[in-house]
Amino acid sequence: MKKLTAILLAALMFLTLIPCGSGSADSLSVSGDSITIGDLALRPDGQAGRLYENDGLKLLVPLEYDELLLVDRIEDAEDGTLFYVAEKASVEAAKEQGGDYRGAGFLFAIARVSEEELNIRRCGYMTGQEVIARGPDGSCYICYTPTDVRFVRESYEGIADGSNEDWKQWTTLNQWANTTMRESFIAENDGFVPLRYGNSDVEIYLARAAYDPDADYTLSTTEFGPLEPGGVDAAPFVERLTRDVTVEYAREDEAPDGEYAVLYFPGDKIRFDFFFAEGGENYIREVRDDGSEMLYKASSEKDGFLASAVMRAWYDALAESREPSALGAALGGWALPEDIALTDEARDAFDKAMDGLVGVNYTPLALLGAQLVSGTNYCLLCEASAVYPGAQPYYALVYVYADLQGGTEILNITPLDIAELAKRAG
């Protein structure tokens, strides 16, 4: 009872501080430690603000900033914008100077997009866009920010030495827009939770692997060869690597040694090495075909986050999708030759099918089986080696089809885990 009484007293005092007509006791509502009177709000931290609403969404602007800002509520914007906020003084100064004043004083805008649209955007550079929240219906919220300074005045004297009072005001408004505004937006809207995705090269290419249907990539390790996406959904692995994860630049001398997983995009001639070494499990190296390199480090507040563990699980899922991997099962129903030496026909089909394949060198060692179809399928045991430094050779089954007209194609490439095969045989 004492707490409620204190809140109501605070509300009455609040009413004496606000401009006439801005709120009414008839619209007073109390929820926990929060008081709302019309479009005015008093929050537990002592923050007094004005509520702007649009399409069921609320944006709280502190009263001390409200008269300094212009808040536009946008309807039916193609990019999903709901709120557009600018510094009033900059807009007025730009108008006085004539010309096109659009964009003057721009601080931020908040937009709503579908999860599908967000995933599409994540596949490219989201310059001036920051993901900040997810709503209870799955919609995602983006904060648009200016990519250049939109501060406008008749004179800019005193900015360099910090004595310009207008610049101090501009700086204060930007600090609010980039910190507490976002926290307040999430708190004011029921069921909203913080959401963040980065937009480094690592995160863009990971998003492409999951959400770009035309993405061409392979995943390999320094121990086992490259696997194509196949029927495995990359999204669960990509989300674990990118959602609420921070990817920052690291010093080159921090690069770990040892084995790593390789996410390679042959069309763009770029790869990302995810290290496995203890203590280095969250380091990622970007390597381009021109020899340039960049080192990153991923971090997350999620307990036990290890990028290397996610990459291992992703590779294992790809490998399992290509079962059976054991020799006996892989060759079921095939005609097994008495002599495993390569025939001229098998070698010719292999050479034609491999022509133009890049990223891994395959050397045929034996013909393990043949199958007559409308043409011939061949299964060859090959030694393979990825074409990047430190790659270890391994064995793989390469399936090649030769049609009756002399055409060939690679049907499948299955890396062999020799230790696992030996274990099964034993």
Give the number of helices: 12
Mean pLDDT: 85
- Classify the helix fraction into a percent range: 25-40%
Specify the biggest β-sheet.
6 strands, antiparallel
How do the helices and strands line up, and which of them pair or pack?
Blueprint: H1 2-17, E1 28-31, E2 34-37, E3 40-42, E4 48-54, E5 57-62, H2 63-66, E6 69-73, E7 81-87, H3 88-96, E8 106-113, H4 115-122, E9 129-134, E10 140-144, H5 165-178, H6 180-188, E11 193-194, H7 201-211, E12 218-221, H8 235-242, E13 245-249, E14 260-265, E15 270-275, E16 283-288, E17 293-300, H9 307-320, H10 327-330, H11 344-354, E18 360-373, E19 375-386, E20 394-402, E21 408-416, H12 418-425
Antiparallel strand pairs: 1-2, 2-3, 3-4, 4-5, 6-7, 7-8, 8-10, 9-10, 9-11, 12-14, 13-17, 14-15, 15-16, 16-17, 18-19, 19-20, 20-21
Helix pairs in contact: 7-8
Write a concise synopsis of the structure shown.
27% of the residues lie in helices and 32% in strands. It has 426 residues and is α+β, with helices and mostly antiparallel strands. The longest helix has 16 residues, at 2-17.
Explain what you see:
This protein is α+β, with helices and mostly antiparallel strands and 426 residues long. It folds into 4 domains: 1-46, no CATH class; 47-194; 214-320, 2-Layer Sandwich (Dna Ligase, domain 1); 327-425, Nuclear Transport Factor 2, Chain: A (Roll), CATH 3.10.450. The protein has 12 helices and 21 strands. It has helices at 2-17, 63-66, 88-96, 115-122, 165-178, 180-188, 201-211, 235-242, 307-320, 327-330, 344-354, 418-425, and strands at 28-31, 34-37, 40-42, 48-54, 57-62, 69-73, 81-87, 106-113, 129-134, 140-144, 193-194, 218-221, 245-249, 260-265, 270-275, 283-288, 293-300, 360-373, 375-386, 394-402, 408-416. The strands form 4 sheets. It has a 6-stranded antiparallel sheet. Strands 12-14-15-16-17-13 form a 6-stranded antiparallel sheet. The protein is elongated, with a radius of gyration of 30 Å. The termini are far apart. Residues 1-9 and 323-333 have low confidence and may be disordered.
